[in-house]
Design a protein that fits this description.
heterodimer; A: 344 residues; two-stranded antiparallel sheet; 72% helix; 1% strand; globular; B: 412 residues; alpha/beta; Rossmann fold; 2 domains; seven-stranded mixed beta sheet; 17 strands; 42% helix; 20% strand
Chain lengths: 344, 412
């Protein structure tokens, strides 16, 4: 009962937030993006014990797939991205939204296929080797795309601007991200309760034993990563339309920013919990926006301090810490009888 | 520091009593708020700070000269800055924030073509006039934008005269221009890629042979692999473009690896302070520049180009033993263009200001400014300087040249 009330209140807050704070529309949309990448990172990192540093690959690839699909529906991509020439390219309402819908879907599917192919190779690695291996994939992809002139190389691509009213556009992007974020949350909530969720936890706890119990672990790992890739790809596609202009190294395949931030969000909130990534993303994003605005010049120092404090004092994250301090909030009952006996 | 400068100026003005009421009236001026997301950290931080200093200097100078007069009121500029961390997505978000949260109605540009490319769609969709001084790529000016104005020359012009010089030298030696071998190494960003496009076009015009066409590595801190190739293929002209960091790396490694190419042309020499950092190694290198303090441009606020340099060094003492980079001068010119547009628009209405900007025809210490319908400045040429005994001397184009070209370059 209490939970239903809580979820309803949160949904209402999410629905009215962009109308209450219209000037903060873009930041609120970015907050949802952080929640999305944190939730999907935790799917493999927290629930399955495979800490990928390469999920940003799917974000960048999603951006590019969406852009290529959108442009090629109407124009020749090479003309559009020509370094010196180019020119004015107009998109109608229908072309814009058709591009966005098809582009996002294509981005998600393409990234899921990529995850299966890359996963087939990298899932042979474990622990830090998997992390570094996937990071390598993301860095290499950024370098390759930045030298691929057909998609603009280091110049990047500028997608068409939202064709309608600007404030309306902001709200549209907010709800695209929010809808995707809520969808992912509900999907994961369901998934973690199924046999698939238990299998992922088994892989995290002892992969060899899980294999010994008859689980086809590679199949589970590939499926889980493909699901994460599908959602991150779509999020990348929406970001591409929201940002309008993006280039490969600093924006699309931004390994040192968003690629790391998603991990920090999860660590901050609590690995392997459903709410941890959400709470972590909110705390992290608010902290980042505040320090970036009011402590200009010290923002990275403050961020570093936050990470150090998390790693040293809150290793289990905010949700893990709360769960330890207030187990009754999570419906956990603590058997204190043993403690009493020991005292006697 | 600014206060000290103000005191210094006060002494310079002989009639102190005249200066007093001027300062008093400057105090009563209202404010016009401009916004700028600029690179204070990240790979473009050096030039981002040069540009910011240029903005600040111009704002102070305009204030000292009685501010911006609209009707019987006077105004001073005030800028809200954010750090874009040299990242496009951050720049675009910050531009959005400046417009929707800080309610900024007029923008000054960021540093680099890449960042300008990221921010221009935002300012354009909100119909916010932006005068930018640091984004030169041609790809900025073919999108039909109406609210983007750039005081600088576009990037394909940066090193075009170096190619022409190489062709002239070949002809003087009785050789065909098609025998000239060109090596190009550029950063993988919109600005440098446009430089490359311009150089390749010109090289093709003279049927030159492009033997190396490479991109600098992402962090711009090592180009020794490319320079090894240069040693083997012995080009006649080496072109390097990679903002300040690329320029510093190029000059340092050209010295370390004793690269012996008769003509080397790079961008951003002054901004990277290559003469101060590397001394004799930098000699005889050609540097493209948007502006030189030796040029004979002049305006009523900043005086001559030479006077600008002198006063800027007095205000920002960290530049006292360096050449003032053109990035600073053009940033100041951008602020001056805004002042002129506000006064001609006689209004704070952004549409009227935009129309006034579009019809700008202004002589400044930085050169003449007149915008094409696409927003780029078409009234000012680029010049090419050569570092001769640690000094920057203009050697091309010939109508501005104050010194003869040293050729071939003597490797130090």
């Amino acid at each position: 009962m209490n939970k239903t009330v809580l979820y309803t209140v949160l949904l209402i807050v999410a629905a009215i937030a962009p109308f209450l704070f219209p000037a903060y529309g873009t930041q609120l949309a970015t907050l949802w993006l952080m929640i999305i990448v944190a939730l999907t990172w935790d799917l493999t990192g927290g629930q399955m014990g495979y800490n990928s540093l390469g999920n940003i690959f799917f974000y960048g690839t999603g951006m590019y797939v969406a852009a290529i699909v959108t442009i090629s529906l109407v124009y020749n991509v090479a003309d559009y991205t020509d370094a010196a020439g180019g020119g004015t390219f107009k998109f109608t309402w229908a072309q814009y939204f058709a591009g966005m819908a098809l582009g996002s879907l294509a981005a998600g599917l393409f990234c899921a296929v990529c995850a299966v192919i890359i996963g087939f190779i990298t899932f042979g690695l474990r622990g830090p080797y998997f992390a570094i291996g996937t990071l390598g994939v993301a860095i290499a992809a950024g370098e390759l795309v930045s030298n691929w002139d057909w998609v603009g190389g280091g110049q990047g691509i500028a997608l068409p601007v939202y064709p309608g009213d600007l404030d309306q556009g902001k709200i549209v992007f907010y709800f695209l991200f929010a809808g995707l974020g809520i969808g992912i949350f509900l999907f994961l909530k369901w998934l973690y309760g199924t046999r698939f969720g238990l299998a992922m936890n088994a892989i995290r706890d002892d992969e060899d034993k899980a294999e010994g119990m008859g689980l086809h672990t590679l199949r589970y790992k590939l499926t889980a990563w493909a699901m994460a890739a599908f959602f991150v790809g779509i999020a990348g596609a929406i970001s591409a339309f929201q940002l309008i202009h993006f280039e490969p190294l600093e924006t699309a395949y931004q390994t040192i920013n968003l690629g790391i931030f998603m991990v920090v969000c999860v660590l901050l909130g609590g690995k392997g919990t459903l709410w941890g990534p959400v709470v972590g993303a909110i705390v992290f994003h608010v902290f980042k926006e505040v320090t970036w605005n009011y402590f200009l010049g010290w923002q990275w120092v403050a961020l570093g301090a936050l990470i150090v404090i998390t790693v040293v004092y809150f290793q289990e994250g905010l949700m893990g810490w709360l769960m330890r301090m207030r187990p009754e909030w999570f419906g956990l009952t603590v058997d204190e009888s043993g403690k009493v006996e020991a005292a006697e | 520091m600014m206060k000290l400068r103000g005191i210094g100026l006060g002494f310079a003005v002989t009639a102190a009593l005249v200066a007093m009421p001027m300062t008093a009236s400057a105090m009563e001026c209202e404010q016009i708020t401009l916004g700028s997301a600029i690179s204070l950290t990240g790979k473009y931080a050096t030039n981002g700070i040069h540009a910011k200093n240029g903005y600040e200097f111009a704002i102070q100078k305009i204030k000292e000269n009685g501010g911006i007069k609209i009707g019987d009121k006077c105004y001073n500029f005030n800028v809200i800055y954010y750090d874009d961390e040299s990242k496009g997505d951050r720049g675009a978000t910050l531009a959005e924030r400046l417009i929707s949260q800080d309610k900024v109605q007029y923008m000054l540009g960021p540093y680099s073509s890449g960042l300008t490319k990221a921010i221009a769609p935002v300012t354009e969709k909100y119909k916010i006039p932006m005068v930018e001084a640091e984004g030169a790529s041609r790809s900025l000016f073919n999108k039909g934008r109406k609210y983007l104005f750039a005081v600088l020359s576009t990037s394909e012009q940066y090193l075009a005269s170096a190619v022409t010089l190489a062709a002239e030298k070949a002809k003087e030696a009785g050789k065909e221009t098609s025998s000239v071998k060109v090596a190009v190494a550029v950063e993988n960003d919109p600005f440098s890629l446009d430089i490359r496009a311009g150089v390749l076009d010109d090289a093709k015009k003279y049927s030159m042979n492009v033997v190396i066409d490479e991109k600098l590595p992402r962090d711009l801190s090592d180009m020794s692999a490319i320079l090894t190739k240069v040693k083997l293929l012995k080009p006649d002209l080496l072109i390097v473009s990679g903002h300040s960091k690329g320029a510093a790396t190029a000059v340092r490694q050209i010295g370390e690896m004793k690269i012996d190419v008769p003509m080397i042309a790079i961008t951003h020499c002054e901004a990277a302070d290559v003469t101060g950092k590397f001394g004799d190694v930098a000699n005889d290198i050609l540097c493209s520049t948007q502006w030189a303090e030796t040029l004979s441009y002049e305006d009523p606020i900043f005086g001559t180009a030479a006077n600008y340099e002198k006063e800027f060094k007095a205000a920002f003492t960290e530049y006292s033993d360096k050449t003032v980079p053109y990035q600073t001068a053009q940033a100041s010119a951008a602020v001056y263009v805004f002042k002129d547009a506000f006064e001609r628009a006689k209004s704070l209405d952004k549409e009227k200001v935009r129309d006034a900007l579009a019809s700008t025809e202004l002589m400044t210490f930085y050169g003449k400014i007149k915008f094409a319908p696409e927003g780029n400045n078409i009234a000012k040429p680029m010049v090419l300087r050569q570092i001769q005994d640690g000094k920057y001397n203009v050697v091309a184009p010939s109508e501005f040249a104050s010194h003869k070209l040293n050729y071939p370059r003597m490797a130090k």
